[in-house]
Amino acid sequence: TVRARPATGLELMAGVTLAANDLALSVTDLRPGCAPCLQPVGPDRVSRQLVTPEFAIGWRPGGAGAVLLFARSARTARVPGWNLLARETAALTALPPETGWHHEAGAKADLAGGRLRINAAAFTATTRAAVPALLDIDPLAAIVPADMTARGLDLAVMARPLEQLELAGTLALQRVRWTDAVPAGAPARPLFAPDATASLSAAWRQPLPGTGANLVPRLGAHWRSDMAVAAGAVLDADGSGVLPGGIAPGGWQVN
Description:
Blueprint: E1 2-7, E2 10-24, E3 45-59, E4 67-78, E5 98-111, E6 116-130, E7 146-162, E8 165-178, E9 196-204, E10 206-208, E11 213-215, E12 218-224, E13 227-228, E14 234-235, E15 242-243, E16 247-248, E17 251-254
Antiparallel strand pairs: 1-2, 2-3, 3-4, 4-5, 5-6, 6-7, 7-8, 8-9, 9-12, 10-11, 12-17, 13-16, 14-15
């Protein structure tokens, strides 16, 4: 990683990570009298070198102001291994590397002597051969690598109107979808990616005399829109009904 400050308030960063991935697969088919027994197609070891560069820029107007403007781009990459949901030898193949780019730009503000903090950012990302996480969710699922895109906005606000009181709120809007038509056997849209989430919280820090400790009661409320959790209709979490199309309804959670 290399960092440079060519001007007052301006910081540049560039870095690269080189990672060696060496995966091996061993299969034991415990089905009595299986014929044929499950075996991987092709080699049972995968070795790949992954290169993930990252670039970032940050600028504080005025040199040391309370506002930071930033932008960042980073490549993502991983080796997902094999299709572990295979039910026959022909499907137990090595999956292609999952690669992509993530870009974001935004601003951070630290105002009123730290009593008000605001973070806001917009992002866009593309992923090639994304592998949905379907294990333990959909018993009839198939792993179908497919390209996907994501775009959205994130906002987080923290306020401390009193020394002991902290208020916080977040809002995230995003659209995560398959790049082309929904692949056969894949969920209608990428899993666990609601289009909107929001949260509110309040905490009170109460010192306990003579102990040096603090009691911090906290109340939080979280909301999300509906999201895909499976490739098809499945039972909901408590087993009381069916989620059509594998879409879990949104709602609030208070804790």
